[in-house]
Structures
1.
Amino acid sequence: MRIDLHTHSTASDGTDTPAELVRNAAAAGLDVVALTDHDSVGGHAEARAALPEGLTLVTGAELSCRVGGVSMHMLAYLFDPEEPELARERELVRDDRVPRARGMVAKLRELGVAITWEQVARIAGDGAVGRPHVAAAMVELGVVETVSDAFTPQWLANDGRAYVDKHELDPFDAIRLVKAAGGVTVFAHPLAVKRGRTVPEDVIAELAAAGLDGVEVDHMDHDDAARSRLRGLAADLGLLTTGSSDYHGSRKTVALGEYTTDPEIYGEIVRRAFGAFPVPGAGG
């Protein structure tokens, strides 16, 4: 089985619609794909309706969190999307995205970048606006060559010159809320140092004690040393280890299925969840 547990669609900051994403996942030879848009479950219904035969959909979201002044992302799988407390927190994060993006546009303009809010809004479309949309506008203007090049201290990285904070969950609260909604939590790309400061290992240990299920190990932003370090940490803490593409369509160079999760780990995630269940494709 080929299993990719971290992808994004136009419901947040990917370039594939949810329907296109599941069709592309099947074409890439995947057996299981998780749709984990930022703080949103808005793409799940379309993905289900278009799900090709032979592909299983795992519903999820990537939750924006902050601990000790450090931003982090929490992948949440197979939770009940109607659970009111978790739904309310996702809405608070989404509501803060527009003023945050406007703030980044204002900072960039102060730095001499001829970006406009109208340009960013056009790129975001109906998706939950975020830094990748601002970065894509910078690419259009020729300020940076790629979206990834905008995520530096010079521009949009955490604490970068044009960075603006947004409402983010405390990760301990996120774990509690996802668990209460029947879901499973995995810390996304925990050692992605090029994105900015990372969460210390002692805090990861505290998150594990609070019920964190796993850490994402095999990821494009982790080199071999980071992966080895994370595997050792996961073994010490009893955490599951996943691998995922973090696919964003044309906004990143990584391909669907470039990094994958072991089938036994996937089976354990499914076993632990009770808020929702994987959706088998029926040729949508």
Note: The first helix runs from residue 18 to 27.
2.
Amino acid sequence: MARTLDTMPPTKTEAPTAARPGRRFRQSAGRQHHAGPLTYVLLAVAAFVSLFPLYWNVVAASHTGERVVEAPAPLLPGSRLMDNLSFAWNQVDMGEALINTTVVASLVALSTVMFSTLAGFAFAKLPFRGRGMMLSLVVATMTIPPQLSVIPLYRIITDLGWFDQLQSVVLPSLVAAFGVFFMRQFLVEALPMELVEAARMDGAHSLRIIWHVVFPVARPAMAVLGMLVFVQAWNDFFWPFIALTPDGSPTLQVALAGLGAGNHSVDHAIVLTGALISTVPLLLVFAFLGKHIVGGITAGAVKS
């Protein structure tokens, strides 16, 4: 017995292990962190830098063209805002241009979101031959400059008799490669394949699966893509300037191209007034829909 006790190896006392980083993270995950003064200072600076161009646009639109180009530039609003707004609105048919731009941007955004979601779902969850190669071709089209397609597009719309008509701007932009890739990447992670298979086992056909399963899951990404495409279509100038004319059915950017032109110079105050008119609808859209879009992004970013 004594020999057994003597030959037993001494037990090692384990040193207290330090808290692991993962454990510390889990312990502090439930705590509510408050922003410090430096955070508010940085946010205030970022807000000022972001809002100052819009503020100066309003300032420039309230002065004369001579005062806008003087040095130093004016920093306080003037008294000619309403006069400049009236002149810019009447110099070109701004009302028709706003309606045309709203129609074009809405149709392009709706069609891009719809077709991109369908194509993204197919590339993400439907197995078919050549899926990887076709997705690579779609992504490769993003590297082609849009200027290379101007001549073929112009030949097509003139042969169809669509020159100076809105469909010449809408139809070439019904779907975008970026939208397909964006929705595919979102649905790969956000849509479980088990959910699609369960719907098929319940007897749902493809259209019902898309309407009741894919669209509800993809709603946050669809809202973000719709906003991005709407803003891009609203500000598009290159192709609408070629396909449309200021005297026909112009979009807003085409109408602004002939704004403020005089005999020998350009009235920069009138040009900036037109830019202010074109910016206000986008600000209103984001003011009404921005909260829902941000909420959709947050909802889509949280995993159960």
Note: Confidence is low (pLDDT under 50) at residues 1-5.
